[in-house]
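Form P-L/3: holo structure prediction, ligand NAI.
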Amino acid sequence: MTTIQEILNTMDYGTAPEDSKIVREWLSKHESGFGHFINGAFTKVGETFDVQNPATGDVIARVSQGSASDVDDAVKAARAAQPKWAGLSGHERAKYLYALARHVQQHSRFLAVLESIDNGKPIRESRDGDIPLVARHFYHHAGWAELAEDEFPGAEAVGVCGQVIPWNFPLLMLAWKVAPALAAGNTVVLKPAEYTPLTALAFAQIAAECGLPKGVLNIVTGDGETGAAVVGHENIDKVAFTGSTDVGRIIRQQTAGSGKSLTLELGGKSPFIVFADADLDAAVEGVVDAIWFNQGQVCCAGSRILVAEAVAAKFEKMLRKRMETIRVGDPLDKNTDIGAIVHPVQRDRIAELVNKGASEGLDLCQGTAPEGCFYPPTLATGVSPASVLWNEEIFGPVVTLTTFRTPKDAIALANNSRYGLAASIWSENVNLCLDIAAKVKAGVVWINCTNVFDAGAGFGGYRESGFGREGGREGMAAYLKQPKLKVKKPEAAPAAPNAVPVDGAEIGMIDRTAKLYIGGKQARPDSGYVYAVNGGKKTVGHAGLGSRKDVRNAVEAAHKAAGWGKATGHNRAQVLYYIAENLSARAKEFTDRLVSFGMNNGAAKAEVETAIRRCFWYAAQADKFDGMVHQTKTNNVSIAMHEPLGVMGVACPNGSPLAAMVSLVMPAIAMGNAVIVVPSQDHPLAATDFYQVLETSDVPAGVVNIITGPRDDLAKTLAQHDDVAGMWYVGTAEGAEMVERESAGNLKQTWTEDGGARDWTSAQGQGKEFLSRATQVKNIWVPYGE
Ligand code: NAI
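OUTPUT (holo model):
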């Protein structure tokens, strides 16, 4: 023990330990172990596993390993409770959420100490960061419960939610998931991470204390197997997962075709960009918050510093100096900056990745750390995009530093990652910051700040960082749904196309064969085949038999049309109005075409009329479906921008061949996406006529590409394609399952539906849902006011 005299002599710091007595007492009361929290009560302790304090290695609790039957009990309880919970008024639900917020505040010291003991994070962070934000989340969502009916008219709760959370912010991640779910009228089965289940169990006690109706919140502890049982349970309506990208991908595959809605918050490798005119002192402190906060175990950690060459040497020197003052040690010491790594397995993983990086010849600068489950702050310089430290999410206090010359280089380096969770930009020039914010591929952008969170702003990623948002209006929307459309008659799989060679003598009508439409040009199918299109009983024409190669060409063409996403809403609206006018001018021709498929004249006319109206409606929306500004924290507002997904695949149903295609393509392009559309397989000619409309409407080349042919094969190629960011599929149930499964590779956003569910010629074929499905929200945090 250091004496005060010694401290005064050395001017070294003394320890300031937080008292952990209340937590030790609570743990000793549960020495025999913890059961699960199911249907409002704790179950008997079953088979258990040990939970350790990572800072000491001591076993602090024994917690039950949830079996499939425990999960089943929890789901049954949640299912039974759901109708009554959803049936309460929003005001009644709000009262419970307020109570939860208040009780969290009352127990805040206990929860903060427990979190630090269980997870290893410094008490300063759990006390000033995690727990206040937990309370804030419940307060904020109490408000959403109160307002849900007014703010989301017609929407209803999704049902029973299975939620699986990680160990880096154990109670905060619980709050992010549980608060919106309950506010919206869902019930929950939550599985905390096996390293850190204790605050979730303490929260269950708080929920009981608040009188939350039984079954509304169920907590089942256990490992990945328990998590898989939750995700795979047939009676769950929605899965919300936060964790590693690898597990996220497994879950995407596992839930494919199940009809469960899914949100994934996955890994990241976020850039931290420092321009030459940045306030370098502030930026150095920013790095401390970006990567040495929570031991770097943060999905949105700024783990790649990109610094302008002109100030790189100075910045690095300042950073190294700052690193010397970072204290690694006892999480319960109020002076500790970096606590313990969550588990020895994770510590070894960090060390292994750093060693790999070192073997590549990188220059490493490390601070000091005590023996045990600790890791020193680490800076790797001279890191290139080929390095393991650049590519892998390390999830530890390890940051790389790379230099750049121009803003363009900075963007290229920042976006050189399969992830897209967050980015932090440092410059005194607000024009530059906002320009970079627009170009960086990330769901969250912090300008002259980093790792700021608030319940009022959406959080979530682009690319392989997952999809869906938590927090704010977007987060609330993810726990609500529009009443499900009834499938009238499931769509039958279209028969295999009857292929004939393009040059086959038997066609005798070669010049009338509709071609594909790729990059603004008509293109012959690569296969060299066409297929017969039947109307009633006779063949009415031929369409190109598109294949994998055509899809690849179309994706390439769509990428070249990226300028479309940057055009103003007004400009896009002009083009859509032009499409509407040109379609209108050729209404008779399109009506005749539909009649040639065997449709009666009245229905054909109505369908063409609907398609025209739809073009006008989305033209009108192109400059109106914009984002909003969230009041988040003092000194910040967050600007929630609607950005296009990028390149999208759109596979259309067989029925309503013109209306369905227009209903799907128009919202996608109105929002700035470029699309590869696979039209009705059996009646593709309305689509191939449509490209003549596109050609005369100033639609830039590559914005709409049309590939006719075997829909599900083409949809599969699109779903598998890593350069396609979003995929809409309306067809058969099997096709929908296939699309969801195959899209797991790059974790693209999907929207699938049975072709029999929607009447495309009615109001069901149009709406804001189409626009929000065609966009992703980027939250840009900017300094504002004092
Ligand atoms: P993980 O993804 O395996 O664990 C997260 C949660 O998922 C835990 O509750 C776990 O029990 C559960 N889980 C595991 N397998 C599952 C499955 N098949 N089905 C359903 N649930 C399952 O992460 P892990 O192994 O603890 O950490 C490994 C790496 O993952 C870290 O080093 C880090 O890079 C990354 N990670 C990223 C997180 C993030 O928020 N982005 C959070 C945790 C880990």
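COMMENT: Residues 582 and 692 are 9 Å apart (CA to CA).
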